[in-house]
TrEMBL record:
Biased composition (Polar residues): 1-17
Record-given protein name: Alpha amylase
The organism's place on the tree of life at top rank: Eukaryota
TM ranges: none
Alphabetically ordered keywords of this record: Maltose metabolism
Organism: Apiospora phragmitis
ATP-binding as UniProt keyword: no
Region (Disordered): 1-26
Amino acid sequence: MMSQRITDTVTGSSGTCNGHHHTTQQNGARLLGKEPWWKSSVFYQVYPASFKDSNGDGWGDIPGLISELDYLVHLGVDCVWLSPVFDSPQKDMGYDVSNYQAIYPPYGTVEDVETLTRQCHERGMKLILDLVVNHTSVEHAWFKESRSSKDNPKRDWYIWKPARYDAQGHRLAPTNWRGYFACPTWTWDETTQEYYLHLYAPDQPDLNWEK
């Protein structure tokens, strides 16, 4: 993975940086404040499966990443951005989370993440975990409950809609929206005879943040 310098441009303003303090001129006014840490930090994104395999099983893992932290420090990295490591059936490289309280076993354990966090901090680096909260996996316990019946307490944790029908009585999805993966955004569920929304793959039902 390549490291990159995060920069920021504010329309209609100019600024200079002196240490951690940022002086900004905006509409003729001189503003002095502390610059957000991420504006001048070097980030290094790690996809764990391909970064470093510590046990020879063919998968990169969190212990492998820990073993290379000194190398990242040498590169001048300020913050490690770790792609999803939560438990997942891996239909979308970990962006389909089936359990937010567990780590995908080939990557390691919760204890490994705690060790990684501590060792990043000991080296003066921050750690960002890529947390996917737009959707879950269809294998998540929440969705299994939600799809089990229309009166399940978790039914409205996801977005369900009844079918439409054309003049010939053919069943249609609630809308004709297309998803980010160029597929329809609605999938029919036989159990409760309704569609659920997914802006990505059918294996990634969207959580309902309006409830």
